[in-house]
Write a structure and sequence with these properties.
With about 775 residues, the chain is α/β, with parallel strands linked by helices. The chain has 4 domains: about 240 residues, Rossmann fold, CATH 3.40.50; about 170 residues, Response regulator (Rossmann fold), CATH 3.40.50; about 50 residues, no CATH class; about 260 residues, Rhopdopsin 7-helix transmembrane proteins (Up-down Bundle), CATH 1.20.1070. The chain is built from 21 helices and 24 strands. Helix 7 links the parallel strand 7 and strand 8. Keywords: Cell membrane, G-protein coupled receptor, Glycoprotein, Membrane, Receptor, Signal, Transducer, Transmembrane, Transmembrane helix. This is Vomeronasal 2 receptor 589. Pfam families: 7tm_3, ANF_receptor, NCD3G. It is found in: Cell membrane.
Length: about 775
């Protein structure tokens, strides 16, 4: 009404012409729609196709279709007559198909920013478990597709999807099923998208049972503030509505405040609206109710009530009427230029001829905004975010609490005033809505099998990893020089450790090594002092000296394993240990062979006599040691040991150690010593029963048994320990095996020399029957 009257007053638009309109009812039933349009085409008489019984001028354009389903139902029939139809409902990509609907135009634009704005709202309030309710049509499907894509990009899960068709009518059972699906989804945030007609078919009876209250996110197209009598909308208290920003139509509010049914006596819709709004009629002929005061107008209503009328849909219809007017204006201008003399026929309008003008229409409306009526135009719509608030006295209000402007720079495109929002009474603030509770520090998400990614269990971080923030999907590893605390929240610096002289274990092992070395030197001094006694001279005195010196050095070489690893002691510790022990074991082997050869040499004509001298055993020691020296030299040349830091064996410490370089070389050195030890043990064992008062074979057998037992136990223990304990195991093995050789071979002899010197004489030897 406002647009038509404004156009008729404009001398520059359709001059000398009066624009009018007819209003027809639109049903949500295909049969009724077809019947209504056939009656209109036939002149409201019998529905006779292709006949017009009405004398007055027929309309040339149909403005209608609050939703795409109605537009399709009307367009199927109107397309037969090439009647232009302009839809003011939400944009539907199906209607923009020029093949199926060449006569249908849409004033609304293809908005690509609504889903982005809704998801930005969800991200702001940390709502990651959201339900979607849409109309069961093409625009609902497009909205679902856009929303799901945007929600996935922002790690928001769809809790439930409910579709409602225009023709759907819900009884109590189907409604309860609809509500129970929402309840079972455990979603406290529901986004609604669709037109008024499709979504209001879901009738919320007086007080539907909701165990928890829901925050609804919707648009002005599905206006929940329009209350049909059977719908109880207290459940929508606190809803957030995305309302398309519109420009004010100049003069429209004044028009609403001054309009009165007395000025439009033939408008039955305005009269009925007046009765509904004010509870009275403009005259007695319209009903039995009281007569309204002549001063009754919309001006007495609240601004909130006017805001319902001045909606985006009203703004769209206003632009649609102007688009038709400008198309007619352009058509008459073209006619006047082509056929200036045919004034009589110039007023005849054929609807199908308007198409070429509607397709190219472009004008500025009274608000200064450009209007373009194209088939596939797209735009980024700006939105106001409104908060729907209801009061106990059955009044309501919309409060602007934010806005979404997609074209604005990042950070300025979305604004929300949380303090201005009135939430549902069960919500004291914007509670984060999730399928699962957020994981705290020290935990990470583990998606529940068969459920969306938003439904997860909180699992402690694996060993060596931390999570110092809430909601982490994966834990992160600490750097090599750090380790997690007990709660696996922070990374703490690792302490550097090694077998140090300052710690009790290092002090103990070093003290034992020095003491045993001094004890060995003392034994050597005793042997040197009593070098001419029979017990010292037995089994080659030089081999005894060599063995004692090598044992003393074996004790001391364990000191190379204590203290911080350096390039020098890493090169020396294993090689020195290998060479010294080889000297000791080869000396024992030589002493054992000497015992055997000594008894063979007593036989007449035996050739073993020449090997009993000092040169033979010493040569054996030199030869065996030379082989070990060569193995060590090859090791040092090809892959020498080097200082290294072990950051993995101990989670809380960095272990400084010597990397052996080549494990093959290391175990070759040990294997060679094991071979010599096994040979010494075998020979000594075979010679253990040879008759001799000072027979060393028995002592050597026992000493080698101790030696082999120590090093056989060493291998698995060494492999199963890490860090400085590995070094301590090797030091202990060196000390215990060396002490076993010293004690088993030389302590009995020292006992005789020092405690029972009377037995250390030739006379005692001669009197021995076993001699």
């Amino acid at each position: 009404m406002f647009a038509v009257e404004e156009i008729n007053r404009n001398p520059n638009l359709l001059p000398n012409m009066t624009l009018g309109f007819h209003i027809y009812n639109a049903y949500h039933n295909d049969d009724k729609i077809l019947e209504s349009y056939l009656m209109w085409l036939s002149g409201q008489a019998q529905t006779i196709p292709n006949y017009n019984c009405e004398r007055q001028a027929k309309s040339v354009v149909v403005i209608g279709g609050a939703n795409s389903a109605l537009t399709v139902s009307m367009g199927t029939l109107l397309e037969l007559y090439k009647f232009p139809q302009i839809s003011y409902g939400p944009f539907d990509p199906l209607l923009s198909d020029p093949v199926q609907f060449p006569s249908v135009y849409q004033m609304a634009t293809s908005d690509t920013s609504l889903s982005l704005g809704m998801v930005r709202l969800m991200v702001h309030f940390e709502w990651t478990w959201v339900g979607l309710v849409t109309s069961d049509d093409a625009i609902g499907e497009k909205f679902l597709r856009d929303m799901k894509e945007e929600m996935v990009r922002n790690y928001i899960c769809v809790a439930i999807v409910q579709k409602i068709s225009i023709s759907q009518t819900m009884d109590i059972d189907s409604q309860q099923e609809f509500l129970m699906k929402i309840i079972k989804s455990r979603a406290n945030v529901i986004a609604i998208y669709g037109d008024i007609d499709s979504l209001l078919s879901v009738r919320f009876h007086e007080k539907p049972y909701f165990p928890r209250k829901i925050v609804w996110i919707t648009t002005s197209d599905s206006d929940i503030t329009n209350k049909p009598g059977a719908v109880y909308f207290d459940n929508f208290h606190g809803a957030l509505i995305f309302s398309t920003k519109t420009s004010q139509m100049p003069g429209f509010q004044h028009f609403l405040k001054t309009i009165n049914p007395l000025n439009y006596p033939d408008d039955i819709f305005l009269e009925q609206f007046w009765v509904t709004t004010f509870g009275c009629t403009s005259n007695h002929r319209k009903g039995d109710g009281s007569v309204c005061s002549q001063n009754a107008s919309f001006d007495t209503l609240s601004l909130r009530y006017l805001d319902k009328i001045i909606s985006f849909q009203s703004y769209t219809i206003y632009n649609t009427v102007y688009a038709v007017a400008w198309a007619l204006h352009e058509m008459f201008l073209v006619r006047s230029e082509i056929e200036p003399k045919r004034h009589g026929d110039n007023q005849i309008i054929h609807p199908w001829k308007l198409h070429s003008f509607l397709k190219n229409i472009r004008f500025n409306n009274s608000a200064g905004n450009q209007v373009v009526l194209e088939k596939k135009k797209k735009s980024m719509t700006n939105y106001d975010i409104l908060n729907y608030v209801t009061f106990p006295n059955n009044t309501d209000i919309l409060v602007k609490v934010g806005e979404f402007i997609p074209q604005a720079p990042p950070g300025q495109d979305f604004t929300i005033q949380e303090k201005a929002i009135v939430w549902h009474q069960w919500w004291t603030k914007a509670i984060p809505e999730r399928c699962s509770k957020i994981c705290g520090p020290g935990f990470h998400k583990k998606v529940q099998k068969g459920k969306p990614i938003c439904c997860f269990d909180c699992v402690p971080c694996p060993v060596g990893q931390i999570s110092n923030h809430t909601g982490k999907e994966q834990c992160m590893k600490c750097s090599e020089d750090q380790y997690p605390d007990r709660d696996r929240i922070y990374c703490l610096p690792k302490l550097v450790i090694f077998l140090d002289y300052e710690e009790p274990m290092g002090k103990t092992l070093a003290s034992i090594a020095v003491c045993f070395s001094l004890l060995t030197v003392l034994v050597l001094w005793v042997f040197v002092k009593h070098k001419d006694t029979p017990i010292v001279k037995a089994n080659n005195r030089d081999l005894s000296y060599t063995l004692l010196i090598s044992l003393s050095l074996c004790f001391l070489c364990s000191l190379l394993f204590i203290g911080p690893p350096t390039p020098t002691n890493c090169l020396l510790r294993q090689t020195t240990f290998g060479v010294m022990f080889t000297v000791a074991i080869s000396s024992i082997l030589a002493k054992t062979i000497t015992v055997v050869l000594a008894f063979r040499a007593t036989r007449p004509g035996s050739r073993s006599r020449r090997w009993v001298g000092s040169r033979g055993p010493i040569s054996l020691v030199v030869f065996c040691t030379f082989i070990q020296v060569m193995l060590c030299a090859i090791w040092l040349l090809l892959s020498p040991p080097f200082p290294d830091a072990d950051t993995h064996s101990d989670p809380e410490h960095i272990i400084l150690e010597c990397n052996e370089g080549s494990l093959i070389a290391f175990y070759s050195v040990l294997g060679y010593m094991a071979f010599l030890a096994l040979g010494s043990f075998t020979v000594a064992f075979l010679a253990r029963n040879l008759p001799d008062t000072f027979n060393e074979a028995k002592f050597i057998t026992f000493s080698m048994l101790v030696f082999c037992s120590v090093w056989i136990s060493f291998l698995p223990t060494y492999q199963s320990t890490k860090g400085k304990m590995m070094v301590a195991v090797e030091v202990f093995s060196i000390l215990s095996s060396s002490a076993g050789l010293l004690g088993c071979i030389f302590i009995p002899k020292c006992y005789v020399i020092l405690v029972q010197p009377q037995k250390n004489t030739k006379k005692t030897l001669k009197n021995n029957t076993n001699f």
